[in-house]
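Researcher: Following up on the earlier apo prediction. This time include the ligand. It's zinc ion, with the SMILES given after the sequence.
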Amino acid sequence: MPPPALLVEVFDLVLGRTCLGCHTPGSVLCPECLALLRGGVRSVPLAGLAIPLHAASPYDGLTREAILEYKERGSRSLAPMLGRLLADAALAAARLHRPARCVLVPVPSHRHAPRGFDALGAVARSAARDLSRDGLPTRVERRLRPGPAYLPMKGLSRSERRTRIIGAFRAAGPTRPSDAGSLVLLIDDVVTTGATMSEALRTLTIAGMRVDAIAAVAATGPSRGRPARNPAPVPPTLRP
Ligand SMILES: [Zn+2]
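Model: Understood. Below is the ligand-bound prediction.
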């Protein structure tokens, strides 16, 4: 379980961290900069996906920087902030379904992911806690596991990704009759081409598991609904 937000802030302060957005000493992403990233949840059309994708932010600017800092440079204290953004995307889906409960199903990491750091899992657990606090009881369930053919896809073209991802996942566990009344969301940190999501959705559907929507911290591609909102952060001294 990740440490509480207050403890994370103390660690960040001790380690001399500064905010990625405004460079204020303390947290690696200060509450003001996180607030700037929130409120921009959008629906993103992706070819071939039969269910809606809700993303908290476009994959650019400060959001992109925070995700890279978290995943590639291991700033684990960002998990609660990214979890909050994922929870916002899940709430957008919940507004359409009005469920009693919610299940978050993470897309698995490939087998070559760094060991000992379940990056998406930590964000998902934090999002589940936020959603439960927001009044939507939520749990994380691993219903997909990586198959032997699931390899990194960084640097591949769109068509190469679509080919390589086929058969990458295995469904875990039996079908879930307990899903009645639950909103089932497939989740990931970043959705780019949608190839991974399509395959994850196909695997779950074949296994008889229902998925209502996809939620992500960030997505590339054109938005539908409200315009993208990811402005350059304003230093605290310049804020009104
Ligand atoms: Zn800041």
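Model: The radius of gyration is 18 Å.
Researcher: Noted. I'll compare it with the apo version next.
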